[in-house]
UniProtKB/TrEMBL annotation:
Residues 135-221 form the SP-RING-type domain. Its main location: nucleus. This is E3 SUMO-protein ligase NSE2. Pathway: Protein modification; protein sumoylation.
Amino acid sequence: ISFNAIDSALSSLKNCQSYIDSGMDVATQVALDLVESFNDEEDINSMEKVMLEYAAMDRELNQYIKAFEETINQVKREKPENLPDLENLAQEKFLEMESKNSDSDFESNEKYMYFKDQLKEMKKQYHANDTIEQIDEDIAVTRSQMNFICPITQMTMKRPVRNKVCGHSYEEDAILEMIQTQKQKKKKVRCPKMGCSHVDVKGSDLVPDEALKRVIDSQNKQ
């Protein structure tokens, strides 16, 4: 078996990653749709199971690729006279990695953690408003609208992004401009949300706040 053939096979495997990523994106949107349309908790939980299956597939794919890459590099380094059975060697490495798997691995899967975070936010936005509305509709509207205001622009957000570190949301363009301006001055950006102690907002920590955007959009339609 030639190294070129293996490289080609690995390249094909890496393409599978994009299918897994797309599947996870779709599952996230469907779960948020279910919360938004007040579907059964059972339906929402089934989407979480789908996401877990995708995360497990993602882990398995990455470990399989890593096992083969490590095997090839090892053989290239050692240059043995007789080429060993690469498939068997890679399989051994893969099984060794697999034996160390645990559920906590999924916490390093960004798409899975994003799903969990957005689902929690979506439930909080919708269910919190239900509870408040039973007390006083005016309070509910006022309180939810306060969450819609960007702490930088003081206007209703159109494209909110959420800070993974402190959990606060801002208008995407406004926070990115703030980061860029401070970067030029070689300064860090403190979270603009009043009372927040987070002093180093980075662009890499920002993710689209799909849950909040949906709530704002639905409020605007009313």
